[in-house]
């Protein structure tokens, strides 16, 4: 059974030990279930709007409701769980306000802006609905085992549907199950100092098994989340304000702090690309993704955009959409000894073959995970985007439509995180497979040299 963080020996080096306080025994999920309510009566106006948000969005009255809301501050928040709860509330209100009308709102009022900026600053997160707000801190569980998908439920949704709840908590279950491999992989990076190939091999084998289990979890999405409901009722409210000019936000959104003070902000919406767990897998396997993921017009190349000198890749950029401690954790992991380099440096003797094979298995499993995710995106986004909206849909999908000059509609297939969706997903999948194939091709080359010699 994989080791838990609390079980690890204190003999590990300081650079590894210093990382553990930045995460919990549940990995990037909290130790306890998120708060379901702010107890202070001062914050009940926020809580009440969040309770009513599916109705307010359906009736398109959320902006008037928030317009009557006074400016509350974060002064009454004390524990981290309270700060996280406030962030969840304000992010839902933010996206509901921006996307909850016939056209998107280019201005966020002070009643949201002022406390959201305070809370975001405290948590070291952007003032936008991130993966943390939608998933990590937005669930309840029937027990303390967050890996039990059937025992999870989202605290809040925009649509009020079980489909949306299932969409969020499936990612929670993935995070919880994936957390079990984190200690083993950190131990493996530490073992490199001692050239301990058995420990590294064992960890990589367990990682491959773990990732295959996560892929099986992804396959359960269709059990309770309908693609049409997702695309037309849920996805529009997950969109950010970056690369959304075609949807009516050419400058992003102005965060009005009152008295004419404020800033225009263009921020990515919540997406699984903001999962620290997935980036942890990339880092410990040494997988690099140079694509920026930025959207290109239909006249440009269909290949993913490569970063210019000094430009951040998409996966580097979205670390700023992760909670501060998680971002610091990943930065620390990136400085640890490289498993990939260790595998590449091993001699071609049979004794090291299990190590090289375990690395190939882990990268192949991770590539398969990304392939399954891309197939899910095709089913839940690409296919519905090519079909007319169902008659039950009461409004346009603002986040995925824009007007031609002749008044017709054109759809632009971007991710909620603002990425050029399918090319980006293909690129990250191929990068993942390629990492293992390089080890395989190197072994084949050595075998050929040995045979010809």
TrEMBL record:
Entries under InterPro entries matching the protein: Indolamine_dOase, Trp/Indoleamine_2_3_dOase-like
Annotated GO biological process: 'de novo' NAD+ biosynthetic process from L-tryptophan; L-tryptophan catabolic process to kynurenine
GO function terms (MF aspect): heme binding; indoleamine 2,3-dioxygenase activity; metal ion binding
Homology family: Belongs to the indoleamine 2,3-dioxygenase family.
Polar residues biased stretches: 391-404
Keyword Ligase: no
Pfam families registered for this protein in UniProt: IDO
Chain residue ranges for the region called Disordered: 388-407
PANTHER family membership: INDOLEAMINE 2,3-DIOXYGENASE
Source organism of this protein record: Xylaria grammica
Protein name as catalogued: Indoleamine 2,3-dioxygenase
Keyword entries, A-Z: Heme, Iron, Metal-binding
Residues the record lists as binding heme b: 373
PROSITE patterns: IDO_1
GO CC terms: cytoplasm
